[in-house]
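Ticket #4471: structure export looks truncated?
Reporter: QA, pipeline team
Priority: medium

Steps to reproduce: submit the single chain below to the structure queue and open the exported record.
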Amino acid sequence: MNNDTTINVTKIHSDKEIFEAIIACYPGLSPNGFEPTSMRDDNSFSLNEFQAARKWLNGIQKTRVIVATKETYSYYLKHRAEEATGVYISNGHLIAAAIAEGFCFRYYGNGPNVYINANARCVKEKVEGVK
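Actual output as written to the record:
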């Protein structure tokens, strides 16, 4: 699974509209990450989690290819975003925020997690507080 569908966020003005467009575009995306569509409950999505994750991801450089490392793994990133923001952020909200920030993702196996095209060095520096 990859994100072949592109959402043009430049024509959407609010975080809420962007978030709703992403949820509509990816029916397999739930707060837990990617799951069978039948398991999704749209009422369990949180705009606050999406905004916190998006704010944390902002400024992380993107790479041309997706390299599967711990620093590019959605579940790892969600925990680092939580630590930095003090806000609980689910895996699915981190993935949605990454899509909104223009990251590409790749699903490599079973489970709800993905890898994104984040620059691993940039993520390490952000986690360690290096500028």
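Status: closed, not a bug. The export was complete when the record was re-opened. Leaving a note from the reviewer for reference: The mean pLDDT is 88.
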